[in-house]
Amino acid sequence: MTKILIPNEKSIGETRVSATPETVKKLKSLGCEIYIEKSAGELSGFNDFSYQENGGKIFAENEIEPWNKADVIFCIQCPNDEKLKRLKEGALIVGLLNPFGNAHLAQLLSNQKLSAISLELLPRISRAQSSDVLSSQANIAGYKSVLLAASELDRYFPMLMTAAGTVQPAKVVVLGGGVAGLQAVATAKRLGALVFVSDIRPAVKEQVESLGAKFINLPEIEEKPTESGGYAKAVSSKFLEEQREILSTHLSEADVAICTAQVMGKKAPILISEQMLEKMRPGAVVVDLAVSQGGNCVYTKSNETIIKNGVKLIGAPELPSSVPYHASTLYSKNLISLITPFINESKLCIDNNDEIIEGCLISNNGAILQEKVFEIGGSN
Ligand code: NAD
Questions:
Q1: Percentage of the chain lying above the pLDDT 70 cut
Q2: Strand duo 92-96 + 72-77: pairing
Q3: Alpha-carbon distance values, 261 to 138, 145, 216, 280, 338 (Å)
Q4: What was the pLDDT predicted at 16?
């Protein structure tokens, strides 16, 4: 019988949980035993009793045995070293393990002979869509970033005709039209803003236009941005320089900039420079979701609001945690969809040759499988 452990996430600012009573019930029906660390779901709106009612077993924070016996750990963020060292050889960790440039994690997985699935590396193929935690969480971040900007802005978002005069709609510039960016566009449109989007993948133009926003044209230089597996590849510094030039005019007229541009496993491109900030109007708001990858805007800092020349810069790396109920519900369903095909007669047997598993299995019983990912600046 496969034993699955659900930790109480301890990272600062983390409010999500990797299983809900509903997914615990599903795993139980497949013959698994599920051990939930006390209060693991409390911040997401799931109390211990609701897990017990659905067949989960609650264990206390100081109990070591559930960690020693677990076959699988479902987590959001990687448990700390002390907890990883409690696991038995061959135990499997599944979560957002942040392996990029993380040689320490590689060493630990290797020393403890652990297996690990890093959900950041899930291949973006159709069959994997229901397991795609990056998408389910980025969607939330995109939505919440606009609400945050709207509540910080000194103006209305929609156009309003009032007896006291007409209010013009806010102008929102979204940098990066991936999952978070497109949700930001849809949310800003629903609030009545005029929305402009910059992305380097040409496919984004049509998606943006279908949402009623305008696509900002790319620099007309010889270099054409490339992509692999749905992800953009980093562009040259010359391209970025030209792109910033184009964006500068849009940003000087913007009320809000939502920054979501990222290049998987690499530093985020700087799309708002100091000179561009100087041209933005006082009272404008920049929400930078790429801040944990260095940010798209100079000066943004994780979980801080900084005012530069009157422009509010908000570094927001953890917005999914601000919508913990739905973030946990979707994340836990993503995990179920990834893992349940490999549970047979209450035993988990991962097929390492499955295309999805092959893409995101970073360690197999301590054998490191994707060494490049763990190197500084590495990606797969
Ligand atoms: P991401 O978070 O890595 O990047 C966000 C966006 O930033 C991307 O659209 C990227 O093109 C853009 N970007 C990179 N450099 C930029 C620059 N200099 N200027 C402006 N924009 C820049 O990407 P994501 O949102 O996780 O996903 C990207 C795409 O992958 C999606 O839009 C979708 O097409 C595809 N996808 C496919 C699947 C699937 O088929 N299973 C699932 C999810 C996403």
A1: 97
A2: parallel
A3: 12, 14, 14, 19, 27
A4: 98
pLDDT of residue 380: 46
Q: Spell out the long-range contacts of 10-14 with Cβ–Cβ below 8 A and sequence spacing 24 or more.
A: 10/79, 10/80, 11/77, 13/303, 13/318, 13/321, 14/76, 14/77, 14/318, 14/321
Give the pLDDT confidence score for residue 31 in this predicted structure. Answer: 95
Residue 126 Cβ < 6 Å to ligand 1:
yes
In the reported structure, the alpha carbon of residue 379 is separated from the centroid of ligand 1 by a whole-number distance in angstroms of 15
Kindly report the number of other CB atoms within 10 A of residue 215's CB atom.
17
pLDDT for 61: 94
Q: Give me the chain's average pLDDT, please.
A: 95
Question: Ligand 1 centroid vs 189 CA: distance in angstroms?
Answer: 20
- pTM to 2 decimals? 0.94
Mean pLDDT calculated for residue range 345-356: 94
- The CB of 244 under 6 Å from ligand 1? The reply is no
Tokens 């995990």 belong to: 335
**Which atom belonging to ligand 1 lies closest to the Cα atom of 207?**
32
How far is 284 from 255, CA to CA, in rounded Å? Answer: 5
**Percent of the chain topping pLDDT 90:** 89
Count CB atoms within 10 A of the CB of residue 141: 26
Task: Name the residue with higher pLDDT: 229 or 267.
Answer: 267
Enumerate the H helices of 219-370 as residue ranges: 237-252, 274-279, 324-339, 355-360
Assess contact for 121 and 360: CB atoms under 8 A. Answer: yes
Using alpha carbons, select from 339, 341, 348, 332 the residue that is nearest to residue 21: 332
Q: What is the CA radius of gyration of the chain?
A: 22
Q: Which residues contact residue 378 at a Cβ distance below 8 angstroms, ignoring those fewer than 6 apart?
A: 100, 101, 265, 372
Residue 101 token pair: 């440039």
What SS3 class is residue 93?
Answer: strand
Bridge partners (DSSP) of residue 214 are 196
